[in-house]
Amino acid sequence: MGKIFLLLLIVVPALEIFVLILSGNVIGIPMTIILIILTGILGATLAKKEGLNAIRTAQMQASQGQMPSGVLLDGICILVGGVVLLTPGFITDAIGFFLLIPQTRAVFKGFLLKFIQRAMKSGNVVFVSNNPWNRKR
After folding, report:
1. Rounded mean pLDDT, 65-77
2. Does the predicted TM-score (pTM) go above 0.90?
3. pLDDT at 93
4. Where are the transmembrane segments (predicted)?
């Protein structure tokens, strides 16, 4: 997992620079800068809206005694999407919007859920319940 993360830290910025240079040559530097700023503003607005919706849904589910597990995965996706949108570049913006839009976020949530389940089965992640009714007396 660490090797993949390291590879992404090297490859993604290089691809971003390539796309930004290409964009500057095709549509011009001022238009490229404007697009980067607009996607940042739009992304921040969308992240705030989706984040507040996730918090409201989690609070509603918790008040009804339900475990807000799906909403927690939404929150993780929204957080990552918002952070990725803060980085300048069109590739990371596309990934960020993918994670912020509810219909496309569902695809990533499926992958994230499978990843968490595999990590729990392998023992890399341990789930601990703080529920007082599950404690041994």
Report:
1. 83
2. no
3. 93
4. 27-47, 68-88
